[in-house]
Amino acid sequence: MDCGVPFCHWACPLGNKAPEWNDALYKGDFELAYRLLNSTNPFPEFTGRICPALCEKACVLNRFNHEPTTNREDEAAITEMAFQEGFITPRTDIVRNGKKVAVIGAGPAGLAAANDLNHMGYTVTVFEKNEAAGGLLRYGIPNFKLNKAVIDRRIALLEQEGIEFKYGAAINLDSLENLEQFSAVVIATGTPVARDLKAPGRELKGVHFALEMLSQQNRVLAGMEFSKDERVTAKGKDVLVIGGGDTGSDCIGTAHRQGCKSVTQIEIMPKPVEGPEDPQNPWPEWPRTLKTTSSHEEGCTRRWNINTLEFLGENGKLTGVKVQEIDWKPNPEGGRPIMVEKGKPEIIKTELVLLAMGFLKPEHPEYPKNVFVCGDAANGASLVVRAMASGKQTAAKVAAYLGH
After folding, report:
1. What is the number of H-type helices and E-type strands within the chain?
2. Residue 266: what are its φ and ψ, rounded to 5°?
3. C-alpha atoms less than 13 angstroms from C-alpha of 368 in its C-beta half-sphere
């Protein structure tokens, strides 16, 4: 590797040392590459598939020719080879210290915290309200981006190393009752409340949160059955996705796989700058540029500066959405720009609306000193890699509190 001064591990929330494991990969030493990768990243098979790769945007090669080292694909390749060659086996050298820790939530933050605490010798029990582990990895990210067998493989390994998972176990965070036997509790429940759109007609049949569709589709693919009335499907419908982020993109790809007639995606904010460079966030910062995913490439009408005014319907069923094109003008008093209408309202014909406008940051009561909050539950909705980093940091705080 000839990076000069590398910025990839500066950009990575986990501090992944990409030059080191890429060098081992280049030399053909997959076992060393995995050991180096796993020293900072507990689940590289997840990030190697779904991380937006902050490290690649900060890569020195991205600075000069916009062709960074393919860290994300390398992570996935290294980890798959490590599983294939038997480099990844359950640890049998864990010495128990007699203390028990509860982790509430089996998403990436909870799993990362549980993994580290287990390796330190704590007896860890993970409580998960759903029927299987993974959080949004399992119920938010479509199978075409992350096959759920990849999650199952890692959970099996964690179980073999001594972590106990209890499913269908919803814990009341206000009381944390029945957890008295645990020396510490880690709350990693994510951001369960999606941002709603309180426009007239919101109650019409056919207006859904994005995760209603995404989580149900993943459950269907796992073998669960739903009645016709329960089913949220895009089959044969004109679909409108409100929200321009990754969740909206996942809705587009899923709608195509369900057999939709068409997909339109609208975003209230202006269209991001096109091309590899963002003048507002120069290298090695993350460039907020136009992102086109494989789901967009499968077919989608994309529009920006569109405000939603009203959901329209007949006999209680959605038939269209009234929208208004807008502009954003600078606020003379500073702060948030002012939204001004542009042109006349129009109606977008649709039978299914998916609200993909992000999630609300959770509010927590004051907890006892032995309770720690991590991941999206603490910081609001963010990236899987940030959730994992938060889980690891919280495990270290728990160990410090318990005098490990």
Report:
1. 15, 14
2. -120, 150
3. 14
The number of CA neighbours under 13 Å toward the Cβ of 327 is 8
Q: Coil, strand or helix: which one is 370?
A: coil
Query: Crossing angle of helices 108-120/148-160, nearest 10°?
Result: 20
**Rounded distance, CA 103 to CA 137, Å?**
17
Max CA distance (Å), the chain: 69
With a pLDDT cut of 70, the percent of the chain lying above it is 100
C-alpha 278/C-alpha 293 separation (Å) is 18
User: CA-CA distance, 211 to 139, in Å (whole number)?
Assistant: 8
The residue to which tokens 């996942």 are assigned: 250
Instruction: Reply yes or no on whether the pLDDT at 404 is more than 80.
Output: no
Beta bridge partners of 253: none
What is the pLDDT of the chain when averaged over all its residues? Answer: 96
Instruction: Round to whole Å and give the CA distance between 189 and 339.
Output: 35
Q: What is the pLDDT of residue 87?
A: 98
Cα 323–329–330 angle (5° rounding)?
A: 150
Q: Which of 376, 402, 354, 404 is closest to 184 using CA atoms?
A: 402
- Kindly report the three-state secondary structure assignment for every residue of 335-360: CCCEEEECCCCEEEECCEEEECCCEC
Handedness of CA 74, 79, 80, 82 (dihedral sign): positive
